[in-house]
Amino acid sequence: MTTSAQLFERACRRIPGGVNSPVRAFKGMDRSPVFMERAQGAYLFDVEGKRYIDYVGSWGPMITGHADPDVLGAVRERLDDGLSFGTPTAIETDMADLICEMIPSMDMVRMVNSGTEATMSAVRLARGYTGRDKIVKFEGNYHGHTDSLLVKAGSGAVTHGEPSSPGVPASLAEHTITLSYNDPDAVEACFEEIGDQIACIIVEPVAGNMNCIPPQPDFLETLRRVCDRHESVLIFDEVMTGFRVAMGGAQAHYGVTPDLTCLGKIVGGGMPVGAFGGRRSIMENISPLGPIYQAGTLAGNPLAMAAGIALLNKVREPGFHDALSQRAATLCEGLQTRADAAGIDMITQQAGGMFGIFFTGQSRVDNFAQATACDGDAFRRFFSAMLDQGIYLAPSAFEAGFMSSAHAPEDIQATLDAAETVFASMNQA
Ligand code: PMP
């Protein structure tokens, strides 16, 4: 049998860090990554045959569990027709109709191949539309690895200690203004000073890349207000929250309507897909209708559209998000009870089907400074011991956890039983 350790050693010879996306490397977790062979429902199975209850869900897309038969069936059905044509196909409009129906603020939508492309294109569109260069983002929010947005970013960028990456020209980064999340006063002050130079605000309406941090009351509303006042474009990056926090995304859950929305993850059902869209008057400026350029050889790929449509049709079922949210709440409440009983300083935060586990004595975590002040060593020990117990959590204290509808009550109970054992062991250490 080939072990994960052997595969990792081999991978490291040809792939930087042995991985094709940095957080997969388990950096800072004092162990090497587990190589997976297959996945089914709530479970991952590694190359050594060990089963894990998975709370990463491929970082979000697998909201109905892995290898969903409806999603696989939709792909299988189209497979023999060919993989890509580079021409328009009817299924792209089926997808566009579905997205715009589920997210009413989106009049028009363009498909791309990743979340990174979605945010990159939305920011370019906002700049082209307003004729302004400056953009506002929030510390610890991650919007993919496009240059303008890789400034004080979250996710792997912070895990790997490089929230502002070398390679991003200072002359570009200087147009990115970074403010503290959940601080409406800072936003007001910034717009008071230079609002008329700001093309857009881009925000994760629930932050999921510095663990899970929901917006405080009036934060998103303030963003809407200042953008209206200064004719700036409000972009919600719903790559993570879209179709997860609620059917219509965080904008439906919190009742704040952006001008543009970025999507990814669930919209592709596990295939490489992103999308951006919003108000018709803005979207009509994209080429070939307008002068702002954006394109993609494989964009709107028919197999990817088939997978995404099949998954979106499942999450549209009445009651889907209530049930998902309830499962996440059961997990969070169960973890809290057990941590309290063991005398471990830990809190959880949740928004719909996403959640976060923070090792802190604080009662809430609202921003990047508070997230990075949590006990990283306690997280590392918790993560590693849970992995040994067959529970697969994100290998970083700066990532959200993802619940799926395939997590049965017994899976959640098994997770809580494992956590009880782990909390007890952490106390002894
Ligand atoms: N925006 C958000 C909010 C994300 O969480 C991510 C990825 N986790 C991205 C953008 C980038 O998406 P991708 O990795 O598909 O490029």
TrEMBL record:
A GO BP entry: protoporphyrinogen IX biosynthetic process
Subunit structure: Homodimer.
Highest taxon of source: Bacteria
Associated pathway: Porphyrin-containing compound metabolism; protoporphyrin-IX biosynthesis; 5-aminolevulinate from L-glutamyl-tRNA(Glu): step 2/2
Any Pfam family matching the protein: Aminotran_3
Residue ranges the record marks as coiled coil: none
Catalyzed reactions: (S)-4-amino-5-oxopentanoate = 5-aminolevulinate
Main location: cytoplasm
Species assigned in the record: Halomonas halmophila
Cellular compartment(s): Cytoplasm
Requisite cofactors: pyridoxal 5'-phosphate
Family according to the record: Belongs to the class-III pyridoxal-phosphate-dependent aminotransferase family. HemL subfamily.
Taxonomic lineage: Bacteria, Pseudomonadati, Pseudomonadota, Gammaproteobacteria, Oceanospirillales
Keywords: Cytoplasm, Isomerase, Porphyrin biosynthesis, Pyridoxal phosphate
Modification type N6-(pyridoxal phosphate)lysine: residues: 265
One MF annotation (Gene Ontology) recorded for this entry: pyridoxal phosphate binding
Enzyme Commission number(s) of this protein: 5.4.3.8
Stated name of the protein: Glutamate-1-semialdehyde 2,1-aminomutase
CDD domains associated with the record: OAT_like (cd00610)
Any one cellular-component term (Gene Ontology): cytoplasm
